[in-house]
Amino acid sequence: MGRCHIVLLLTVALTVSSILAACAPATGLAEFEQGNRLAEESLFEQAIESYDEAIRINSQFGDAYRNRGRAYTSLKQFEQAIENFDAAIQLNPEDALAYLFRGASYTELGRRIEAIEDFEKFIALSDNPQLTEAARQQIEELEE
User: Cβ(47)–Cβ(64) under 8 Å?
Assistant: First the structure.
């Protein structure tokens, strides 16, 4: 049941993430959007290359770090994913989705305390009731 919640969280959040891309910096945006398209096609290694290029163009592009982290998560490279979510959060401490995704990566690594902290931070920052409820359920499962 816990993995189902994580999959639901990540799927719904991808849609939200794409919407947030409209607020992304102008430079690197084309590469970022290409990465999103590739990720939607499950071409995660190629998506990472596109996000790498977006970050090379604009090292302050927090959404690119966050989405590159998501691609690493899809490849089950959770440590690399966490590094990218850390960078996204450092650039934008209000990036609720970065906390959500990092919490999911911590969950996969069995790091319950960090996962719970990130899900709680997500809940505090998010205005999405559906994702907030899913994060609450994930916390309950982690506390069992």
Answer: no
Is the separation of the CB atoms in 81 and 73 below 8 Å? yes
Q: pLDDT tens across 4-61, in order?
A: 666 556 655 555 555 555 554 458 999 999 999 999 999 999 999 999 999 999 999 9
- 6 residue type, one letter: I
Q: Could you write out the DSSP letters of every residue in 61-118?
A: -HHHHHHHHHHHHHTT-HHHHHHHHHHHHHH-TT-HHHHHHHHHHHHHTT-HHHHHHH
Q: What is the C-alpha to C-alpha distance for residues 84 and 72, in angstroms, rounded to an integer?
A: 9
pTM, 2 dp: 0.82
The 8-class DSSP code of residue 17 comes to: H
